[in-house]
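dude i think i finally got it to work??
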Amino acid sequence: MTDKNEIKEKIIIEIEITEKRISEYKELTKPIAPDCAVGRVSRMDAINNNSINQAALRKNEEKLKNLNYVLSKINDDDFGLCAKCKQEIPFQRLLIIPQSRFCVNCSQ
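look at this
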């Protein structure tokens, strides 16, 4: 691994950003009160937006879980190796997607 400290910093930053997004999405996905709508169409829009935000919330919760897992494994001997083929994951890939556990070929 070229520089685990740089990747560790990136993971910590991504965790902070993802936690902030999760907090924002939780606020956006609160139930929609029936009396808050101006009309039927605006309520339907609000429900649709809520569904989109719930999907984004789930995606970010999964990302946070993966980031925390990778952070817990950063000092392992096999950190930076593909979980499938055991080849080294390119350093740039880990900087861009720090929660990567697979090389480009195995991730497809």
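The chain has one domain: 4-107.
im so relieved honestly
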